[in-house]
Amino acid sequence: MVWSAVISSLIAFIIFVVLIFSFKALLKRNESGFMHLLLALMFTCWLPIPLAVQKALGHPEPLLIGTGFGMLSLILLVFTMVLQASHLSYSAKQAMNHNQALWQERDNWMLGGMLAGTTELFADFLKGVWTVFLTVAFFAKGHSVMGVVGIIYSIVGVISVLLLINQTVVKEMPILAKLQSKLGFVYHNLETFVWYMVLTFWLVLCS
């Protein structure tokens, strides 16, 4: 199972590299829907990783709870990316023949208010909970380097919680709102990519 998860993660790596090199071209051609479909496939390829890491650590019982949070995080990201891909592709086709400004406004409403920000931050929060369980398991099994990496990503999880709370309250904290606007699309996907690549590399070393 571990090597199957590694191969699946390498496919996700290839998808991410394709996205990096085609990002500007896809945006220029208004192919945001296809881009989000690729992201959905990438997150799907990482679904076996939480189970593979749990197996590599010897199935510690407390980690089973954390693994559930990790898989739920990925499932939520897959779900929202598929919905975003569906909306953006439909919107782009409609904007070609109808009021483009109207469909741009609908994009902002759907992505900013419904499908993207809060959902993705909540998925980051779930990943952060999983990371805490993983960090404890890594230290307990003597994997100190991975434990330190887990601490760093646990801090990222705390930041996600603060951004999540800030986004859902009516009166936002300006500093957190500014931070979220600066982090944006690239940060959320890049930090997730790095996390799963680190776990994949560790799985290879442990196999």
TrEMBL record:
It comes from the Bacteria. The chain crosses the membrane at residues 6-27, 34-51, 63-83, 121-140, 146-165, 186-205. Keywords: Membrane, Transmembrane, Transmembrane helix. This is Uncharacterized protein.
